[in-house]
Amino acid sequence: MTNVSVREGGPALKGPFDFQDSPLSRAAHQPLLLGVFLNLQDIRYSRLPTSNSWTFDYNVKIVQTAEALGFDLAFTRAQWLPKGHYDGEASLEAFVALGAMAAVTNKIMLISTMHVLYGPLHPLHIAKYGATLDHIAKGRWGINMVTGHSAVSHEMFGRQRIEHDKRYEMAGELFDVVNSLWNETENLSYKGRVSPWQLENAWVTPKPLYGRPILVNATGSPAGIEFAARYSDLIFITSPGGAHIESALETLPAHIDTIRNAAKAVGRSVKTVINPIIISRDTPEEANAYAQSIVDNAIKQPGQKIDSDAHAWRGRLDAKNKQGLGLGGNIEIIGSPEQVVEQLEALHRIGIDGVQLSFYDFAVDLEYFGRKILPLLKKAGLRVD
Ligand SMILES: Cc1cc2nc3c(=O)[nH]c(=O)nc-3n(C[C@H](O)[C@H](O)[C@H](O)COP(=O)(O)O)c2cc1C
């Protein structure tokens, strides 16, 4: 990211970490950021019954419960996929759904995934929509900037997938402009270098409360890490190895170092957040039995056949990495409450700044997490009131 507006002589660009009282800066005081990784897409991994639902009302309840438990953020992904892919019954669009949740929550940060290169989605749209949501959410809303790794989703928009690294270059130019619009004191004119966007005397109000909305991207590739180093406050990472906790703990430290160094090289820092699924019951045996019954009822994912050029999950294809059970999380954390806390502590120890948790049965397992695991996390010093 340029440090100043793309307009010559324009203002310095600020973000939420430049303001001590922004929701993001306040949350960053927690030893381990805590998020919930929603499933508005209704992806189903198993026929074992759950209370889960893609509906707005169900997910509002999850976010409000997480907020009451003191969670820092809620995130939801978004996909554009033809019929027959892994959306279950239906899926809600993330930008609209989490944006709407801004009005029914008070403290929790809300990160919507947005495919920023599909469109026509002009920088002015993103800047104005973002500024509006920033004010509704009082600085709690942000974008997970994704560029589209699957060929079919670009094709749905009548385009061909753009080359992997070029996508990040285009997204970079886009956010140079969007961020300039958020911080500008004058009208902005701009003509894209690598992107088709043009602006003439463009102006956006209101100015976001803390420089700009929270910016995030999810990646594992060198180009994506470089992008995160320049543009993101948080980077959603994956285990470069397998989903088994041992494999994740083995492969993550070098990966985290790479990310930290990339940010340092451009004079910034970026917080790493990973998304485990938590499968827990009072005893290890009960937790393992729960995990096993999910596996015994597993549904084969049609989505696995998608032509994707993503780097982030390549470790899943490498037989030398210890894989998990295929429960859906990026890392699988299975065990009694004490064992869950041990595994979260281990992630924190190797340098993970935050976790975004998903659950097999959201309402039931989140309630269990709040009652049985969260007190232990506090006792371990990973969460403070
Ligand atoms: C935690 C996480 C969440 C993601 N959410 C989405 C999403 O909602 N929609 C999407 O199209 N891609 C999503 N992705 C994929 C990324 O946008 C990206 O395409 C992928 O990580 C590959 O990027 P890379 O090749 O730079 O590693 C997600 C990735 C991760 C790790």
UniProtKB/TrEMBL annotation:
Show the coiled coil region(s). none
Q: Which residues form the Luciferase-like domain?
A: 54-353
Gene3D superfamilies per the UniProt record, alphabetical: Luciferase-like domain
Q: What is this protein called?
A: Pyrimidine monooxygenase RutA
InterPro entries in UniProt = Luciferase-like_dom (IPR011251), Luciferase-like_sf (IPR036661), SsuD_RutA_monooxygenase (IPR050172)
Q: Which organism is it from?
A: Lachnellula cervina
The molecular function terms of the Gene Ontology recorded here are:
monooxygenase activity; oxidoreductase activity, acting on paired donors, with incorporation or reduction of molecular oxygen
Key words, A-Z = Flavoprotein, FMN, Monooxygenase, Oxidoreductase
Any Pfam family hit = Bac_luciferase
